[in-house]
Structure formats: structure tokens, C-alpha cells
Amino acid sequence: MALDARLEMLARMIEPCGCVADIGADHGYLGIELLLRGKCGHVQLLDVSAASLDKARQLAYRLDLMDRVSFGVGDGAEALTRRADCAVIAGMGGRTIAGILERGRAVLAGAQLVLQPNRGAELLRRTLMELGYAIREEQLARAEGRWYVGMAARAGVAAYSEAELIAGPILMERGGPDFRAYAAYRLGTVRKALSGALKGDADPKELTKEVKIWEEILYAGDGGTNIPDRG
Predict the structure, then answer these.
(1) Residues lower than pLDDT 70 in the chain
(2) Domain boundaries, the chain
(3) pLDDT for 163-200, tens place per residue?
């Protein structure tokens, strides 16, 4: 069962373990694939949509995996039925993921977190830092014309700079062509948002700060002499 580039990125970051909880599992493709690859012994598929979980249940049944999958309808970590060694929360806004982590802090204690915010990565990194997590890995994926950022975190102490909160501490340290292309994409997006803010009543302060950070990443020091393809 082939995963798209976004889900494949998440699968790579999940450490082999006994039980993975996919919070917001949708149709269950990621969790089922983890079982097929032998990356975990059990998967909990959790979602607010019973209809989505019914499709995941049908898939697990067809692949004869029902004894290794449990299902839970609910909002966030509250739907967990057993302790998870790894919790995946992906395909939501950073604020939504941050809320799940804050409400489920006790339940998720000790678990590896593998997260993929569709937006609001800065807020999510700040929340991780405040909740006592350190980001151990970050990766990028390009799918259907969009860039996706994945991050894996564990309990630990971290103090990230403003640039690291916006661009990602591991991504900045590693650099490379994909990161430079992602930075150019983000710079274009934020410049467009700033232009809109300046024409309206929105406060441009945060957007101006972010534009400056992306420009420094692209045009200064290690990655600054070559402007990457924004494609």
C-alpha cells in the first residue's frame, strides 16, 4: 500500500515501537502501513469522524489486521484506549495540534510525538518548548504543489530562537536544497500576506519579522548566494 509523500515522511520519522496512536487518523492509511512494515505491533486509529473510522476498519479487515488495530471516536488524546509509545497528529492546524497536546499532556507523557501542521508551525514549536519537549527531527515533503513540515519530539529541555521557531531548528541546521526551496516558498507566501496586511487593518509586525528571517536564511551566510527555485 503506497503512501503519498506527506505520509511517507511521517512514517520515516516514527521510531519502531509497540503501539502507535494516530490521532486524526482519517481512513487509517498511515497506521495500517506501519503494521505492514513491522514498525509497530499495534495501532490505535482515532478520529472525530465515525464514518472515516468505518473505512479504516474495512481496510484493516481486508488485510486481516483487526487483531492489531483498535478504533476510537473522540477529540484528541481523550480517545486513547491504551498507552501509546508514539502519537502521530498530522494534517491539522498548528493551533489545533497544540491544543490536543495541552489537553492530552498526561496521557501522552513519555510518548514520541510525530507532528505535521498544515499551518502554524511556529506556534506549535513554541508550544512544544513550553510543554517540555525538544524537537529531535524535522523533515520536508513536497506533495501536490505544497510543502509539508514534519517534526518529531520527545520530552526534553529546549530554548529556540525566533528564527528556529519560524524555520525549524533541525531544518536550519541541516540546510540543503529542499530547505532552501521551502524557505523561498515561505518567503513568497509571507510577502504576499504582508502586502495584504499593509493594505488592510491587520498589524504587519509579525509578518515583517518573518519576512526578515526568511530573507536572512536565503540571502546570508551558508545559503545566501543562490536563490532556490520556488517551484
Answers:
(1) 221-231
(2) 5-160, 177-223
(3) 999 999 999 999 999 999 999 999 999 999 999 888 88
Residue with cell 478520529: 47
Query: How far, in Å, CA of 37 to CA of 51, rounded?
Result: 26
**Quick one: 155 exposed, middle or buried, by C-beta within 10 A (0-12, 13-18, 19+)?**
middle
Q: Per-residue DSSP letters for 41-86?
A: EEEEEEES-HHHHHHHHHHHHHTT-GGGEEEEESSGGGG--S--SE
Nearest to 40 by CA among 102, 114, 109: 114
- Beta bridge mates, 88: 22, 114
How many other C-beta atoms are found inside a 10 Å radius of the C-beta of residue 11? 19
Distance CA 90, CA 119 (A): 11
Global pTM reads: 0.92
What is 5-160's CATH number?
Answer: 3.40.50.150
Cβ-contact 60, 36 below 8 angstroms: no
pLDDT tens digits, residue range 130-149?
Answer: 999 999 999 999 998 899 99
